[in-house]
Amino acid sequence: MVNWLYKIFICGFLLLINSKLYAQYDTGYVAVDIAQMEDYNLYPSYDVYLQMMERFATEHPDICKLIEIGKSVQNRKLLAVKISDNVGDEEFSEPEFFYSSTIHGDELCGFNFMLRLINDLLINYGSDSYITWLVDNVQIYINPLANPDGLYNGNNNYVTNSTRYNANGVDLNRSFPTINNPVFDFYEPEVKAMIDFANAHYFSISANLHSGSEILNYPWDSFYDSELPLPDNSWFEQICSKYVTTARKIDPEYMESEIAQCGYVFGSQWYKISGGRQDYMNYFMRCREITIELSNAYFLHPDFLDEYWHKNRASLINLIGESLHGVTGRVTDFNGNEVNNAEVIVLDQDKNYTTVFTNKGGYYFRYLPPGDVYEFSVYADGFETINQVVATQKDTLVSLDFMLRNGIAYYPLPPIEGVEGEVAFSAQFDGGKIVVESSKPISDLVVVDSYGRILVKSKPKKFKSEYTLNNCSHGVCVIKAECGGRSFTHKLFITK
């Protein structure tokens, strides 16, 4: 009897030790060494994730570079790779495309898919003609994991304990500057890092990957179209439709729900949020960003990763290709010098929050539906404003260059009108100064940059005021003004 009890005790003790040993890992879900990720049918532990990102760059140094965007609350790395044929150079004539995933730590499958996509682009470069063309003509940035503390909540080897929030308990996708409230006293480190990264680039198209539904949504998340019209609505619908149509070649019922049978929806028509990255990138950064919800399951079991990857692979690759459809060109002076941060405006199409700007090399990228004729105007301080007409073509990046003559610029878009025209308000950046003007005295004025820092705070009580900006970096700023009993929010692009 004693011997029998002793054996039970020993067996129980060994089972306890064994369970504690294996409880370090989510057995069947997490790869604990890099070899287990060869088929991409698991989620990597945090250490394996770091090893994979480093290996991408070391094994493909000619076309892949590892970038540390920043650090999380718990000091985990926020990483991205750049994939390009001249990966060490800034190629201003090429658009910059950006993928980012898992800003909500418990929405996992996009994390796996972005690692697969990086690998796919790298191993097929030189053998697959379409992928080679993309890498040769687009600067591709991929951030597989935007919220590592949420994904590896409590343990670098667990994913089943993941949480939506970061380590401070904050929803990162509700924490970006907003159109109505651009002033923030504090940014979560993950959000601050993403804002810094966006400000350091001129991303033209981007996508933020989520799960919990199967649908695409496009701006705005914070406003209905009747509240803030979206001139590019037809272009967003076009690229979303192409994504869904391609995915449905694999699964005809994919991304089909009661929300939208077509598979995509205007963000706020689904549900309204405030502080989302999608609206921030579109409004502040002049980047066309969409949100891709990949699976109804927040945690997609590894058994289904292959299936969902094959549904999305071609669509994810083709979306990068949208960077090479539309209108591009270079803006120079008569000596051939680039004019950076010139505002490129599509007349009868753009609002003051949808125009784009030239990058440091003087190049711009403007995405429009094909098969139509548009009139472009270029506004730059110190140069005469000029217009040109261009016809867009299917699957083509049409070239339209501008050569500007020194002179006085005029802003081709009308001022913001109040209800029934009772109040008009306008703002321009001219000669290093912000010039604001209204048909009624301006009682309160606040100017903030894309980091939420206050640049100007004033009670001018005048119809027109000028403000010199010192030591401010280039980028979008937001002006909030009170005049004639109405509130106005206006956006400008500040040049150095």
Explain what this protein looks like in three dimensions.
The chain is an alpha/beta fold. The chain has 3 domains: 30-324, Zn peptidases (Aminopeptidase, 3-Layer(aba) Sandwich), CATH 3.40.630; 326-404, Carboxypeptidase-like, regulatory domain (Immunoglobulin-like); 423-494, Immunoglobulin-like. It contains 10 helices and 25 strands. It has helices at 2-22, 46-59, 109-124, 129-137, 148-151, 189-199, 233-247, 267-270, 277-283, 305-321, and strands spanning 30-31, 43-44, 64-71, 77-83, 96-101, 139-143, 203-210, 215-218, 264-266, 288-293, 326-333, 343-346, 356-357, 363-366, 373-379, 386-391, 397-399, 402-404, 416-417, 424-430, 433-449, 454-458, 462-468, 475-483, 486-494. The protein has an 8-stranded mixed beta sheet with strand order 3-4-6-5-7-10-8-9, with helices on both faces. Strands 19, 20, 21, 22, 23, 24 and 25 form a 7-stranded antiparallel beta sheet that branches. A hairpin with a 6-residue loop joins strand 19 (416-417) and strand 20 (424-430). Helix 3 (109-124) packs across helix 10 (305-321). The chain is globular. It starts with a helix and ends with a strand. Residues 6-23 and 417-421 have low confidence and may be disordered.
